[in-house]
Amino acid sequence: MEKESLKYQRLREEMLRQQIEARGITDPRVLAAMRKVPRHVFVSEALRDQSYGDFPLPIGEQQTISQPYIVAEMTQALELTEEDRVLEIGTGSGYQAAILAEIAYRVYTIERIRSLYLQARKLFDEMRLFNIVTRYGDGTKGWEEESPFDAIIVTAGAPGLPSALLSQLSVGGRLVVPVGNQHAQDLIRITKDKRGVHQTNLGGCRFVKLVGEQGWKEF
Ligand code: SAH
Q1: What does the pLDDT look like over 143-157, one tens digit per residue?
Q2: Which domains does the chain have, with CATH numbers?
Q3: Which one of 89, 92, 140, 214 is at 20 to 30 Å from 166 when CA atoms are compared?
Q4: For this structure, is 66 an active site residue?
């Protein structure tokens, strides 16, 4: 058991050096979180040895855990502090939520596929990540009762910016969302201040579909 965790610790350090730091992630809070959270725990046993590789991996239900670098890039773009309340759309494996939970005050995460929701919930309990609150449902409508949020992260590709999420972002808040078609998207970062909304494009990316009322229609 101890040998096992040492092995993953080493793979994690290598991931940090070769994929995260080498590509310019500098926020110390993001680096510390990625160094700490055991990514291998968020994939099936058969995939654990590959979990620190430079690619996404399947997590069942035709969904994926994002590539480590994209998790770091999106987290850094949120500019989180320890006081922030963050909303995540697309819990999936729970890995991104666990990274957010290391940095922020509280994480609210929504997943639309029941089996993934249940599994992530169980993991958060086992890992004693008590500052993560989970919800089963369509995240494109946001989480009205808990809004506004200091930061919002969408980890699935949207056809456009879900307006509910924008309205649930606090003044001073940051929102990161992949927007595009079903094959390729741009990672869009939105900030809100007293004068309005500002948008920058962080570059190309590829995510699974955001399915819901303000996303893609699956049925
Ligand atoms: N953040 C995840 C990435 C999972 S992939 C991780 O770290 O593993 C994207 C996830 O978004 C999938 O699990 C998918 O089911 C979920 N999803 C897609 N549309 C959604 C919606 N409208 N509301 C909530 N979750 C959604």
Answers
A1: 999 999 999 999 999
A2: 6-205 (3.40.50.150)
A3: 92
A4: yes
